[in-house]
C-alpha cells in the first residue's frame, strides 16, 4: 500500500477513534460495499429502508471478508449492525472517500487490506482470558487458555505466545512459592536454549526447563545439568510429556529427568495451597495470574501476553 494511502487511513482512524470492534466491523464491510458504487458516494444509498441502520452489515458477511485475510475469529456477531455511532461514522467515512477520490484514484484492495490488518491488531492486543469455572477442573480451564495462545500463534506465524505464557506461568508460581531473590527471571526472548544459561530457572541444585516442544538440544542440556550434579526438570504441555520422556529414554537418561506438564504443575499447587477448599481455589489461581501479569509488565514488551482472570 502506498504511504499516502496508509497515512490517509491512519489519520481517519485516529480522528474517529476507530480502533474497537464496532467501528472496525463497519469500516471493513463498508469498504467492500463501495467497490460496486460510482464515486462520489451518497450516504442515502447505504441506509436501510427505515433509515435507522446502515444497510448490508451482518455477522456472516463480516466473517466471510475477514476469513479471506486469514482471520477466523468473530469480531462482532451482528457485524456492527446495531453499534451506536455507526450511522455517523458511515457518513464521515463516505465523505472521507469522496475527498480522497477527488485527490487521487483509490485502490480499494489496499484500503480493505488496511482495515483487515487493524482487525488483526485488535485481536492481537486483547489479553488472553482464563475463566475459572467451579464445575470444571483447573486443568480444563488452563487447556482453554492454552488453546487461545495456540490460535493466536497460528494467526501470527513466527510468534511464540504459548511458550512465553508457559515460561512466565511457571515463574509466577515459583515466585509465590519461594522467597524474593531466590531465582532469576528472564524475558522469553532469552530462553536458555539459545544461551549459555543452564536452564530457564535455577533453584539450588534444581534446574527448570520450560518448553512446548522438547527436543534433542534440550536433552543434551539436561545431560549437562546431571553431569554438574543438578536435577533437571522439564515443564511442558500435557501432550508433549511423552515426547520428553521418550527422548530421555533414548539418551539413556530414564529416571534422571523430571518431566511435568504445566496443567498438573499449576493445578496441584493451587489445590494444595487452597487446602483443597473449592471456595479458596479461585483466590489462589487469581494470585498466580496477578503475579504472571506483573512479570509480563516487567520482562516483556507485548502487553497482549497479559491474562484476564474471570471467576464464575
TrEMBL record:
InterPro entries the record matches: DUF4928
Entry superkingdom: Bacteria
Protein name (record): DUF4928 domain-containing protein
Species the sequence originates in: Desulfosporosinus hippei DSM 8344
High-level lineage: Bacteria, Bacillati, Bacillota, Clostridia, Eubacteriales
Amino acid at each position: 500500500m502506498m504511504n499516502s494511502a496508509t497515512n490517509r487511513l491512519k489519520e481517519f482512524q485516529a480522528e474517529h477513534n476507530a480502533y474497537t470492534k464496532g467501528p472496525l466491523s463497519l469500516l471493513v464491510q463498508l469498504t467492500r460495499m463501495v467497490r460496486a458504487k460510482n464515486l462520489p458516494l451518497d450516504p442515502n444509498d447505504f441506509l436501510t429502508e427505515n433509515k435507522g441502520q446502515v444497510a448490508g452489515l451482518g455477522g456472516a458477511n463480516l466473517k466471510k471478508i475477514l476469513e479471506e485475510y486469514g482471520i477466523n475469529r468473530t469480531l462482532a456477531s451482528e457485524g456492527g449492525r446495531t453499534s451506536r455511532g455507526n450511522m455517523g461514522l458511515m457518513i464521515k467515512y463516505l465523505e472521507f472517500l469522496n475527498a480522497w477520490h477527488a485527490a487521487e484514484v483509490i485502490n480499494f484492495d489496499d484500503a480493505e487490506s488496511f482495515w483487515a490488518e487493524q482487525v488483526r491488531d485488535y485481536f492481537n492486543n486483547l489479553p488472553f482470558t482464563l475463566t475459572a469455572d467451579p464445575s470444571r477442573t483447573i486443568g480444563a480451564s488452563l487447556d482453554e487458555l492454552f488453546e487461545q495462545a495456540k490460535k493466536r500463534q497460528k494467526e501470527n506465524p513466527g510468534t511464540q505466545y504459548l511458550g512465553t505464557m508457559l515460561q512466565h506461568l511457571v515463574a509466577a508460581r515459583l515466585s509465590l512459592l519461594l522467597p524474593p531473590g531466590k531465582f532469576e527471571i528472564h524475558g522469553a526472548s532469552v530462553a536458555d536454549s539459545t544461551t549459555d544459561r543452564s536452564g530457564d530457572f535455577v533453584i539450588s541444585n534444581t534446574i527448570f526447563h520450560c518448553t512446548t516442544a522438547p527436543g534433542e538440544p534440550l536433552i543434551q542440556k539436561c545431560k549437562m545439568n546431571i553431569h554438574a550434579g543438578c536435577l533437571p526438570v522439564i515443564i511442558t504441555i500435557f501432550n508433549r510429556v511423552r515426547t520428553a520422556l521418550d527422548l530421555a529414554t533414548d539418551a539413556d537418561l530414564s529416571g534422571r529427568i523430571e518431566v511435568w506438564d504445566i496443567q498438573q504443575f499449576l493445578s496441584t499447587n493451587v489445590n494444595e495451597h487452597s487446602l483443597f477448599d473449592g471456595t479458596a481455589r479461585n483466590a489462589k489461581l487469581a494470585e498466580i495470574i496477578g503475579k504472571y501479569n506483573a512479570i509480563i509488565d516487567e520482562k516483556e514488551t507485548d502487553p497482549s501476553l497479559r491474562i484476564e482472570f474471570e471467576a464464575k
